[in-house]
Specification:
The structure holds 2 protein chains of 2 kinds. By secondary structure, chain A is an alpha+beta fold. In chain A, the strands form 4 sheets. A 6-stranded mixed β-sheet of chain A has the order 2-1-6-5-4-3. Chain B is of the alpha/beta class. Chain B has one domain: Response regulator (Rossmann fold, 3-Layer(aba) Sandwich). Chain B has a 5-stranded parallel β-sheet, sandwiched between helices. Chain B is globular. Classes of the chains: A alpha+beta, B alpha/beta. At the A-B interface, helix 4, helix 5 and helix 6 of A face helix 1 and helix 5 of B. Bound molecules: adenosine-5'-diphosphate and magnesium ion (MG). Adenosine-5'-diphosphate binds next to helix 7 and helix 9 of chain A.
Chain lengths: 432, 126
């Protein structure tokens, strides 16, 4: 059973036909429902009519601009009856499709009908498209929406540009950071290097001085003539000469290593003696830390596999890995030493081992270890637990990347309170 | 006179033996060597071994020269050996610390052996 009375049903019937006729472009049918004095108000600036002819004129123009597919759908209809007057309000969705694109617009209307000569005739129509209120006193009209859309598109475009720019900047900052991390570690190295070069140079100077004296003595002895003494002096000169050569080479190797470290990696792999590389970086970081912080002290030990095969690596890259891991280890033991536990002896140990498929380098420290809660994070770039200026948080992430680039692996094992092991696995590369 | 030389650089032995070849030959000097602070302490703890002068490097892994100096000054008071500290850096901080800990002298690397010989002579004359 309908909720409408008979009269109401008649009114709605006329109302619906009136609107559907618009969708069907049947202007004649539409206006057969209108009274001669029908008036109309729409949303557009010129959408107003004081009589049937004017209204029809507006409709005629509108219909000619309708797209091919055009449909209406009543959302709701409300009716009020006042004796011989009926007021129908409704909300309709106008659906249109242009080139396969469907768009919809919400239209509200008020239609007044008058009962004239046995039929309901439309006497007034008011149609409107709801505006979207943005803020108090500000409204959104269709035109504004389009403008706004265009603005938004522009903004999206600009934002994308900006994002692209920041991404590029971020990339360059990142490579700068990597470079400065490299330089910072070089700075740390410098003091160590100075010490490592000074020592052999002292020997070179001292042994040369001794030899100058010995040669003078030798000349004296040649005159007085004890062959035994002459031979002894000559032997000493030979020993000293050997020492001079040896320490000269030592200084030479350090300078070369330093240059290699600062040089941007040319990506060239070289057959490298890993034991020598470990030893070099262990000493460099030890002396570097010592020069930076007088209170720093720790013992270091090495357990090198005696017949470790040389492997193909980029030495300055693996050197950086070692430097980062060793520096972390020394830092950890030094922190623990500050707790002044009586029996505690800070110690860092580097071990090398030969495996079937490659080699293993293990850096042990007896520091405070890594708590489980941060184990997952330590390889993330910029993760650091060190005070500002002491850590960049880049050491481990760079180390990881470098080891992975060598098709190796970097593994951490740590028990909080007991110490930490970092294991570098490097494959024996296939012969090229 | 026995001198204990403490340095982690092993060639220091050859150098000292050559530099003091005459003094050693004439039995004026007797050199002993230790390569770490721990080794030096063990040497000194051994009752048989005494040294009139200890020359110690500061910068050594493990027990540093300054730690060794502090321990020597605590433990071996009668008669106290003369301790001279050697450092590669020769900076004010190490100098001040060494002096506070009771170092008798302070030498910088590279060692000036002529000067060192003078200092040793002065000890002998005292
Ligand atoms: N040997 C270690 N012992 C204890 N914690 C460590 C050790 N190595 C690394 N870590 C932890 O991992 C963090 C990240 O290390 P890293 O990437 O080298 O950056 P940074 O040393 O600049 O902090 C450190 O801040 C520290 O918390
Ligand atoms: Mg680090």
């Amino acid at each position: 059973m309908s909720k409408y009375t008979e009269q109401e049903q008649k009114v709605i019937y006329v109302h619906n036909l009136f609107w559907e006729a618009l969708a069907n472009r049947d202007v004649d049918l539409r206006f057969s429902f209108c009274s001669e004095d029908v008036t109309f108000i729409g949303t557009g600036l010129y959408e107003k009519a004081a009589n049937k002819a004017e209204y029809r004129n507006i409709n005629q123009k509108g219909v000619s601009q309708f797209p091919e597919h055009f449909q209406i759908e009543f959302l709701w209809t409300n009716i009020s009856m006042f004796n011989k007057l009926a007021c129908v309000t409704s909300e309709v969705i106008w659906k249109q499709s242009i080139n396969g694109k469907v768009s919809a617009e919400l239209v509200r209307s008020t239609t007044l009908l008058n009962y004239e000569a046995d039929s309901w005739k439309i006497v007034h129509v008011h149609g409107s498209v709801p505006d979207y209120r943005l803020a108090e006193g500000e409204y959104m009209t269709t035109e504004k929406i389009m403008l706004r859309n265009r603005e938004l598109e522009q903004q999206v475009y600009e934002r994308t540009k900006e994002l692209e720019k920041s991404l590029a900047e971020l990339k360059s900052t990142q490579s700068q950071l990597i470079q400065s991390e490299k330089m910072a570690s070089l700075g740390e190295l410098t003091a160590g290097i100075a010490h490592e070069i000074q020592n052999p140079l002292n020997f070179v100077n001292n042994f040369s001085e001794v030899n100058v004296e010995l040669i003078a003595e030798l000349k004296e002895e040649l005159e007085s003539g004890s062959m035994e003494d002459i031979k002894a002096i000559a032997d000493d000169i030979a020993i000293n000469e050997e020492k001079i050569l040896q320490h000269g080479k030592r200084a030479d190797a350090i300078v070369k290593g330093m240059l290699q470290h600062s040089r941007t990696s040319n990506g060239e792999k070289e057959l490298t003696d890993i034991n020598a590389l470990c030893d070099e970086y262990l000493r460099l970081s030890y002396h570097g830390l010592r020069a930076k912080d007088k209170s720093f002290n720790a013992d270091f030990k090495t357990e090198f596999h005696e017949s470790l095969p040389e492997i193909n690596i980029i030495p300055q890259d693996i050197g950086r890995v070692l430097l980062n891991l060793i520096t972390n280890a020394f830092y950890a033991v030094n922190e623990k030493a500050k707790e002044e536990i009586p029996s505690f002896e800070p110690e860092v140990l580097i071990q090398t081992q030969k495996l079937d498929t490659g080699i293993r380098i293990t850096i042990h420290d007896n520091g405070n270890g890594i708590p489980d809660s941060i184990k997952e994070k330590i390889f993330q770039p910029f993760f650091t637990t060190k005070p500002p200026g002491q850590g960049t948080g880049l050491g481990l992430s760079l180390a990881y990347d470098i080891v992975k680039a060598h098709e190796g692996d970097l593994i951490m094992k740590s028990h909080a309170g007991e110490g930490t092991k970092f294991i570098i696995l490097l494959p024996t590369s296939k012969t090229r | 006179m026995r001198i204990l030389i403490v340095d982690d650089e092993r060639d220091i032995r050859t150098l000292f033996e050559q530099r003091f070849r005459k003094e050693i030959k004439n039995n004026e000097l007797d050199l002993a060597f230790a390569h770490s602070g721990e080794e030096a302490l063990n040497y000194l703890i051994d009752k048989e071994q005494h040294a009139v002068l200890i020359l110690s490097d500061i910068n050594m892994p493990g027990m540093s020269g300054l730690d060794l100096l502090a321990k020597i000054k605590q433990k071996f008071s009668l008669p106290p050996p003369i301790v001279m500290m050697i450092t590669a850096y020769g900076d004010q901080e190490n100098y001040t610390t060494a002096m506070k800990l009771g170092a008798d002298d302070f030498l910088t690397k590279p060692l000036d052996f002529k000067q060192l010989k003078e200092k040793i002579k002065n000890i002998n004359h005292d």
